[in-house]
Structure formats: C-alpha cells, structure tokens
DNA sequence: GTTAGTAGTATACTTTAGGTAAGTAGTTAC
DNA sequence: GTAACTACTTACCTAAAGTATACTACTAAC
C-alpha cells in the first residue's frame, strides 16, 4: 500500500489531533457553539437565548452557560433593574473563535445546500 | 439594555445557527473529526487509525467509520492481499472540510498554549 | 505449537449528555 | 387575586456513547 498523499510526520499528526481534542473539550457538544453564536449576534438574556436557540431547554442552557463562563467564554452580569435582568456576553476570548465559527457556518451552509439538491 | 455590537438581523442569526447545527449533525461528537484528520494524514488502516487516535476503542472506531462512510466522508476498500488489508480513505467531499479542520486545529493549538501558560 | 499480527464482532456493563416536566421566587399588570 | 413575565432549579428518565474483555478467523514468523 502506497500513501495517497504525502502525510505529515506522525508527530505533527498527533499534535493536530491533540489540538482538535483540546478544542472539542471546551467547545464540543450539541449546544456550546450555538450559544456562542446566538450571544455574538446580540442575544444577551436568558430567555432571549432560549427563544433564539431552537430546541434548547432551560436546564441545558443554564448548565452550558455555567460551563462557558467557567471556561472564559461568557461574562455573566446581574443588573440592578426591576424585574431583575441578567446578561450573558461573549468575552474577548470568545472572539478568537471567529474563524472556527465562520468556517463551520460556511461549510454547514454548503452541506445543507448539497443535501437539499440530493433530496 | 443597549446592544454591545450591531447584531445581524434575527433571520441571519437563525440561518447561521441552522448551518452550524447541520454541520455538527454529521461531524459532531468526540471522534469524527479526529478520524478524518488521522485519515488525511495517511493513516488508512483500522489498527493504524486506532493506534494513532489515542483513547478510541475498536467498537467506537468501527461504528464511527460506518457512520462516516454512510455520510460520504470515507471510502472503504477491501484489498486482495494476504493477510487481508482494509483501507479507509477520505473522499473528495472530505476535503471540503479543510478550512474547518485547519481553523479548529489552529484555535486548539492557541488554546492549548494559553492553558499551558496559565498552569 | 505458540506468539503476534491482520480486521474486526459480540457481549455486558457503566457513564454521561441531553430531554421532560414541574417547581421556585420575585415583579408587574389587570 | 391571578396571570404573566423574569431567571432559573430540581428531580427524574432515556438513549447514546464509552469501557472492558473476550472472541472469530486467517496468516506469518519463530
């Protein structure tokens, strides 16, 4: 069996695998990236996020927000208003995900279109 | 509450959420992207993949490969050799994930480095 | 004959992610 | 007073994912 492509050295491959593994560890799962997108598009409040992200329950949203906050992607603020308002905002660090989000959204759009054409 | 950024219209946001949702539906989960990377780096055989991808079991690898084949990311070939050799190769369609994989690997590397510095 | 390699499958069990539904606590409007 | 909004929490359940070990069946080397 000959190789189909010139592969990177094994070490490089493992490095890439580890990098992607680290990324998935913090932003993997069904909801995290969607929450980040919804936040980045101006949805800052709990119920606003829940309404925007179709299918997510309050429990899951609550848990995921805590997780994202812990990992430095979300800043939670309780405002002194009445009724109480809580906002969740993307941090500076979240903006480093820009390329990831854009390439994923772009690919998803292309894939969706491909599926649509194939029926 | 004023908006922090000028958000896209709601419709655009939902479109982006759906696109990412579609993407995650086929390439989400703990292993699929790692398998695609390992394959793309010249690991074509079952045990070779299992050795390269740390932590994956034969059962999971077997299931994920079937899934990836079904979705058009993997071409499975049984070779007439002795002992029997089976190869799993990335398809043309898999190459459309290039940007996704690169941006994710790049971000993961950066994130890993950040974690390392923070201890 | 035994060890090691090829590529898996089978079985059984555990863990975790996520889903469902209801409840809590406070405020405001009618 | 009661309905509806805010932002959640709690308890329970299920299905998917993961772990562990053993097993098949074939070949080659020692």
From TrEMBL, chains A, B:
It comes from the Bacteria. Pfam families: HxlR (PF01638). Transmembrane segments: none annotated. InterPro entries: HTH_HxlR (IPR002577), WH-like_DNA-bd_sf (IPR036388), WH_DNA-bd_sf (IPR036390). Keywords: DNA-binding, Transcription, Transcription regulation. The keyword DNA-binding applies. Residues 13-116 form the HTH hxlR-type domain. This is Helix-turn-helix domain-containing protein. It comes from Flavobacterium sedimenticola.
